[in-house]
Amino acid sequence: MKALVKREAAPGLWLEEVPKPEIGINDVLIKVKRTAICGTDMHIYNWDSWSQKTIPVPMIIGHEFVGEIVAVGTNVIDFNPGQIVSGEGHVVCGRCRNCMAGRRHLCAHTSGIGVNRPGAFAEYLALPMSNVWEHQSGIDLDVAALFDPFGNAVHTALQFDLLGEDVLITGAGPIGAMAAAVCRHAGARHVVITDINPRRLKLAKVLGATCTVDVSKESIAATQKKLGMAEGFDVGLEMSGNPSAFNALLENMCHGGKVALLGIPGSDIAIDWNIVIFNMLTLKGIYGREMYETWYKMSVMIESGLDISPIITHRFHYTEFEQGFAAMNAGEASKVILNWD
Ligand code: NAD
Ligand code: ZN
């Protein structure tokens, strides 16, 4: 089969002929139909310092996908060939305290597809049945390919009650913009999103942000005044990993405000802890998606009319993958879909 492989410890990716994966008794074999490019794939493509210490070569990369089941292991009774599925890319140990208690997203021994084990940028992917999520029939395949990053947005956005609340999202990357869509869908009043990239802010508005703030030109405090908000934001979602964005978010929360942190900082961030303490803020770190409550919420929100498709800015055949990675590197793209049909 064909796959996009990190063949050498150097920048780039190689389209190669590799053996089709064999499935174990508990696995399903998926014929990949669409994949999406993630920031993680860009790190691996560009071979930054994180990738150099994390990714063993050779490695088939990629973890955002949708496909069709073509074979199942002898133990698998809940899945059948023909089903359209995505998969949770974090394969958990199943034996640690959290796994045993059903809190699989808190497993301390996860292995990631396309990072630690063969990934989805390939014609076929073998996955344990416990990692498979079946889509509702008729789902748009491009949207289905986004369930991994969409899940990051949903997991973060739904941490705290949103109905009637005012939400501040820092960072209008693909995940921040999808989180804006989720917050609106879930009944928030103001959904204010910040960035320094006008193109990304514009797209976030299309997805559902009620107000955008280019923090290189205006302040969040001035925006609050404009909106007639007297007491600060009820819920904050940090989705940039940027130190000044995180600090600005803390400064603009109401007393008792709740903050979920998804953005990954490049290095240590200093914050004013007095704000956290005296304003009695709640800070919660978020990683991945909940298995499988997040996946359930994603499916039913799509079913009830949530449209995240505008986040897709580019579509290519997998043989044109270099164009997709170039669009991401140029900062032109939000989500890029690769078609494997
Ligand atoms: P992204 O890098 O595409 O988006 C981040 C956005 O933040 C960019 O649009 C950037 O312009 C913006 N930004 C930079 N400085 C800013 C500032 N001062 N104020 C406001 N915005 C600013 O990333 P993404 O794919 O949308 O992911 C969002 C974040 O979540 C990233 O940090 C990513 O590494 C992280 N992430 C975390 C998990 C997890 O499980 N915790 C999973 C996926 C992604
Ligand atoms: Zn575990």
Describe this structure in words.
The chain has 341 residues and is an alpha/beta fold. The protein folds into 2 domains: 2-150 and 290-339, Medium-chain alcohol dehydrogenases, catalytic domain (Quinone Oxidoreductase, Chain A, domain 1); 160-285, 3-Layer(aba) Sandwich (Rossmann fold), CATH 3.40.50. The protein contains 12 helices and 18 strands. Helix 7 links the parallel strand 12 (191-195) and strand 13 (211-214). The longest helix is centred in the middle third of the chain and has 12 residues, at 174-185. It is globular and about 60 Å long. The mean pLDDT is 97. Nicotinamide-adenine-dinucleotide is lined by residues 39, 152, 170-176, 194-197, 200, 215, 239-242, 244-245, 262-264, 286-288. Zinc ion is lined by residues 92-93, 96, 98-99, 107, 109. InterPro entries: ADH-like_C, ADH-like_N, ADH_Zn_CS, GroES-like_sf, L-Threonine_3-DHase, NAD(P)-bd_dom_sf, Zn_alcohol_dh.
